[in-house]
Design goal:
Elements (H helix, E strand, L loop, with lengths): L2 E7 L2 E5 L4 E4 L25 E6 L20 E7 L9 E3 L4 E3 L3 E7 L5 E7 L2 E5 L13 H16 L8 E5 L10 H9 L4 E5 L6 H8 L19 E4 L5
Parallel strand pairs: 3-4, 4-5, 5-6, 10-11, 11-12
Antiparallel strand pairs: 1-2, 1-13, 2-3, 7-8, 8-9, 9-10
Helix pairs in contact: 1-2
C-alpha cells in the first residue's frame, strides 16, 4: 500500500492512504489558511476525505482543541484521543495497553514514559506506529537512578512490539537530549524496526538529522529514515530514496 507522509510540526504529521487521511498530534494552527503544503490543516482542503485524528496526550505541543472545529467542514471525521485529554466532544477514548476495533482499522495502545499513549494502527494494508511521548527521555543532569528507570520502562514497552511488521514508525529524536537524542529511536530500530522511520519531536531544530546521517549507530538502517527540512515537506511511502 502506498502512502504520503507530511510533516506538520513537532510530532504532528498527516499520513494519506487511498482510503484515509490520518492526522497525528496536531497543534500548531498557524499561519492561518496556508494548507498542508505549509504544515497547517485547512479543513476545506480535506473536506471530502475520510479523516481520523489521533492525539496521544494532552500536552500543548501535541494537542490543540481547535481540531474539533474541523467537524463543521469535514463530512467524515473521527477522533481517537488518550483518556487524559479532558473534553466533552464526541471522541473515541483510549487508555494505555488497550485494543480497539474501529471497523475499517484497529488500534492498539502502549503506555507512554511521559503521559498518554503510543499508537499501533493496522489500516489499509499498513502497520503504523506513532510513539507520542513514549521515548527514552534520558536527560543530562537527572539522577542516574531516574534515567535508568526511564530506560527500563521504555525498553519494556518497545519489547511488546517485537514481531510486529511495522511499515511506518514515528519515533522521537529530540535534540534537547543532547548526545542522547537518538537513544530511543536507535533502540526501537534495532529491537523492532520499521520499513520507514520518521523522526519527530524536534520542532524547528533539524540538527538531529545531521546526527542521523553521520552517527555510526544509524549505519545499518540509515536508508530507512525519512528526512525532512521544513513544515509541509512530503515523503512518499515506499520511499523511493531508500
Amino acid at each position: 500500500m502506498k502512502a504520503e507522509i507530511r510533516y506538520l510540526y513537532n510530532s504532528g504529521f498527516t499520513l494519506k492512504t487511498d482510503r484515509h487521511l490520518f492526522i497525528f498530534d496536531y497543534y500548531l494552527d498557524s499561519p492561518k489558511g496556508c494548507g498542508l503544503a505549509k504544515g497547517v490543516v485547512d479543513p476545506e482542503e480535506i473536506k471530502d476525505l475520510d479523516v481520523v485524528v489521533f492525539v496521544s496526550h494532552s500536552h500543548p505541543d501535541h494537542y490543540n482543541p481547535r481540531i474539533f472545529s474541523w467537524r463543521k467542514t469535514i463530512g467524515k471525521i473521527r477522533y481517537v484521543l488518550s483518556d487524559d485529554i479532558k473534553t466533552l466532544e464526541n471522541v473515541i477514548r483510549v487508555v494505555p495497553e488497550g485494543e480497539y476495533d474501529l471497523g475499517d482499522l484497529s488500534v492498539r495502545t502502549l503506555d507512554s514514559t511521559d503521559i498518554g499513549v503510543a499508537f499501533l494502527i493496522q489500516a489499509d494494508g499498513l502497520c503504523i506506529y506513532h510513539a507520542g511521548d513514549l521515548n527514552d527521555w534520558y536527560w543530562n543532569g537527572e539522577p542516574d537512578g531516574d534515567n535508568r528507570e526511564m530506560t527500563r520502562r521504555y525498553r519494556e514497552q518497545v519489547h511488546t512490539l517485537k514481531g510486529e511488521a511495522i511499515d511506518i514508525a514515528f519515533v522521537p529524536a529530540d535534540p534537547r537530549l543532547e548526545e542522547h537524542a537518538l537513544r530511543g529511536l536507535d533502540y526501537f530500530m534495532r529491537t523492532v524496526g520499521a520499513e520507514l522511520a520518521v523522526p519527530m519531536h524536534f520542532s524547528e531544530n533539524t540538527s538531529v538529522f545531521e546526527e542521523l546521517k553521520t552517527d555510526s549507530r544509524t549505519e545499518g538502517y540509515r536508508g530507512r529514515i525519512a528526512f525532512f527540512s521544513q513544515r509541509g515537506d512530503m515523503i512518499p511511502y515506499p520511499n523511493a530514496d531508500k
